[in-house]
Amino acid sequence: ADAAIFQAKSRGYGQTVTAPRGSTVHNGADIRRALEDQEFVLHYQPVVDLATGTVDKAEALVRWVRPDGQIVPPDQFIRLAEQTGTMLELGDWILSTAVHSATTWHHDGRPVAVSVNASGAELQDPTYARRVLRHVADAALAPERLIIELVESDFSLASRAVRANLVTLADAGVRLAIDDFGTGHSSLHRLDQLRVDILKIDRSFISPLTDPDQPMPVVTAILAMADALGLDVVAEGIETPEQADWLRRRGCSHGQGYLYGKPAPHPPATAVLHRSA
Ligand code: C2E
Ligand code: MG
Ligand code: MG
Ligand code: MG
């Protein structure tokens, strides 16, 4: 069962992912050393406007490239970083790298935003929003060109620090997205309380889509709700033109997935972005 789970997760990489060797036990000191030795890299995956095909934003996805070339997926070290108190340092590096790289991105004459995933530990940290805004200012990036992705099960709005961070970010113009929407603790009450701009429909809702006339009541309901709330929607994990057509015909504004590009250090989309800049 474990092997099956690992396979399922590693399919998300678009490259060979090797499980850490049996003897490899990562700890907080490993992560700190890896940061010093610059073993972390960001890959970027394009998010396209489904109506026009224009790249609208790109999501930053972190990977750990070990000295032997082995690539460790984020699912295997983000939680470890949180547990060992190194997530804030790692998160600072991720934010700084992502916002600096986004400053040069354009497509069809329009600036392209960067989407960065926030971990629960970062959202809980009282200095998080301030640090995000400092990175944005250092890079001279328009705040609207940064999107922070939140996974609902990773944070609680009962926490004063979390609420303060989200208000500070929204006040500054940084956009907020709910990631993996429809899984975990999706709460409509929370959606009402948060100043969210974007809903990302989890890949698990998109994968079963094969037929152009397939009734997909939950996806249809999410699209209607997002429309009523005035939110943009990104469908995650689009792998086939049929899935893209289904979503476009039903008013889904944006899509992300292998159909448009796998996460890569210099995704094909980035080459296009740079050319038209
Ligand atoms: P996520 O934010 O929901 O990211 C989307 C995941 O789906 C990525 O996996 C991406 O490679 C994969 N994916 C995209 N399109 C497709 C597709 O068409 N088919 C399939 N099968 N998979 C697709 P990845 O990069 O392994 O990241 C996994 C999770 O790790 C992310 O889920 C996110 O929750 C977390 N993560 C990644 N980078 C960061 C980071 O910088 N900071 C934090 N805190 N978490 C991160
Ligand atoms: Mg995400
Ligand atoms: Mg997601
Ligand atoms: Mg996820």
UniProtKB/TrEMBL annotation:
Residues annotated as domain EAL: 24-277
Protein name (Swiss-Prot/TrEMBL): Bifunctional diguanylate cyclase/phosphodiesterase
The species this protein was found in: Xylanimonas oleitrophica
Top-rank taxon: Bacteria
Complete-protein stretch covered: 314 to 590 of 590
